[in-house]
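Support case: user asked for a sample of complex input and structure output to validate their parser. Sending the pair below.
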Amino acid sequence: MENFLEEVNKKIHGVPLQSCYHCRKCTAGCPTASHMEYNPNKVIKMIQNGKRDQVLNSKTIWLCLSCETCITRCPNQVDIARMMDVLRQMAIEEGVGAREKNVLKFHESFLSNMKMGGRINEPLMMVQYKLKSGDLFSDAVMGVEMFMKGKLSLLSPRTKDIKSVKDIFEKTKQS
Amino acid sequence: MKVSYYPGCSLHATGKEYDQSMKSVSRALGIELKEVDDWSCCGSSSAHSTNFDLSIALSARNLIAAEKDALDVMVPCAACFNRFKMAEHHLKADKKLKTKIEDVVGAKYQGGIAIRNPIDIIYNEIGIDTLAAKVVKPLTGLKPVSYYGCLLLRPPDVCEFENYENPFMMDKILSSIGVDIKKWSYKTDCCGGSLAISKTSIVVDMCDKLMSAAREAGANCVVTACPLCMNNLDMRPSSGLKLPVFYFTELIALAMGLTGAKETLKSHMFDPQPLLKQLQLI
């Protein structure tokens, strides 16, 4: 049976995590490292040490912004940004869920909105997110102001061949 | 020149100022835009954060639609640009994945058209001299810092943009329309992107840091080429730190005296009009 490290490496499908020599350049450049409980290079070490539950249940993987600074600066081309995507997907697939619940709820609202119209209808997507997260009142004043300035269009055009978009969702659905 | 045009979802909503100014600047510079037929969302952060195959397939659907016109595709939104380049990268590098994605989308991907950002097209195809020759009102007194953000540049081998740690194309474009561009070290720092809604306090901190740095550099405004950076910088900084934020195309439109150039300025959340009036630019 594959161990955690082998499994993650296979999914990253690039430079193996063993190439990391912990110079911490990724962590030094990471804009959200100060909000994470484990720094990016620490996550690599934890994967090497088989700390599956701690990694998949960490805030870190959900606070990664995919700004790609880490992979850009890594002297060994370890794709840490891709690693974070892989870990988020494993957390979802294995039913661990997201330690930062609202981050995943935002992504789910976004994708469910896209599935309806092929394109994002921003006001509707925000309503979906607010209902899902229960965070009803933050940004409400800002939302009204945006609406007054015509930045939120309720009737934005949709993709006509919506079936082709729904098919993509259907065919890539994880078991 | 003629290019395919992929506006993306933001440019039809919160980023409409970018779409409008992009279109009028393109017309004035002789770039003919042909919108990609029946395009759909690129997938954005939400797709690649949760499902790799979905993220590649959603972008591939649009690239395949764009290929029908056999023109380079111009993608103004930095996030859509990044997702398209990422899909192209993976589809060209991994034959097995390409077959799988073609089956998901139900069409063949050729990979024969270039995915380009308008900064690259204006700088490399139109040229700074041509642009400068069309300026009727140099934007004297405007002191911006240029803010490129993440997604135009990184990862560099995927995005293939120039000088990924210290890019200059947008700086040169802006200098040619008469602004006094300020130097700073935050050109390629992150604004907080998609965490703006779900982890707002982190994004406020990040935007405050950027605005403080812009002020320290002596800037009186910030210029961007990304609708997500615009949203965050225009709305999220603490009130005492805010500065007007412009799309680079809005400033080109203003300097070229194009019809409608003043209209897009009215829908910014932090009103840039007082600064422009004070400098007698509107």
